Amino acid sequence: MHVAEGTLSGPVLIGGAALAVAGISLGLRRLSPEDIPRVAVVGAAFFVASLIHVPIGPSSAHLILNGLAGLILGWAAFPALTVALFLQAVLFGFGGLTSLGVNAVVMAGPAVAVRLLLGRPARSPDRRVALAAGFGAGVVGVGLGCLFLALALFLSAQGFVNVARLAVAAHLPVMAVEGLITAFVVVFLGRVRPDLLED
């Protein structure tokens, strides 16, 4: 779901950059020195998982893990995922520097939403509740990311409507896979490191 250079209109790029700066500022303000290793590990997992692209028409699909990142990091997902996206743009040409703000909002915005919506049930001692919350986190993280991407494309040009639809359709299987992965990771963390899911 990386938006390439030269794809989006100026106002969308400026709006995305402004939202990303606000999110990064909030994330950094809530970040303590003890949280930095956790943020680094989650950012690295996001970086590696989203490097493996499966081409689908003019779009591509890949694991994102932003729902899991949101459950573990909350607002700190903004700086973590933005750094990972920056490195992907510079090292591999995925996305771009001018579209970095929009890409950060597309990835980290849903991560924060997941934490706000499903953070508490994911910490439930009831394994079934935690499993359902984890699955929901994976689905919602990718689903909201697709909707944010589609909105950015739609606001840039009417001609991108079909591309936006294809991007959403291509990520439907990814939502299911991410839901399963996130569900099992949440249950595992609940058993061995429940502190990673705490506020």
Short summary:
By secondary structure, the protein is mainly alpha-helical. It has one domain (10-197): Arp2/3 complex 21 kDa subunit ARPC3, CATH 1.10.1760.20.
> Oligomeric form of this entry?
single chain
Helical residues, percent: over 70%
Strand count: 2
User: So, CATH architecture?
Assistant: Orthogonal Bundle
Annotated CATH topology: Arp2/3 complex 21 kDa subunit ARPC3
Approximately what portion of the residues adopt beta-strand conformation?
under 5%
Report strand order across the widest sheet: 1-2
Number of helices: 8
Shape: globular
For the biggest sheet, the summary is:
2 strands, antiparallel
The run of helices and strands is: HHEEHHHHHH
Rg over CA atoms, rounded to whole Å, is: 16 Å
What is the CATH class? Mainly Alpha
**End-to-end span in angstroms?**
28 Å
Please, how many domains? Answer: 1
Q: Overall mean pLDDT score?
A: 89
Structural class determined from secondary elements: mainly alpha
Unreliable parts: none
How does this model look, in words?
71% of the residues lie in helices and 3% in strands. By secondary structure, the protein is mainly alpha-helical. It has one domain (10-197): Arp2/3 complex 21 kDa subunit ARPC3. α3 crosses α6, α4 (77-92) packs across α5 and α5 (100-122) runs antiparallel to α6 (127-156).
Descriptors:
mainly alpha, Arp2/3 complex 21 kDa subunit ARPC3, 199 residues, globular, two-stranded antiparallel ribbon
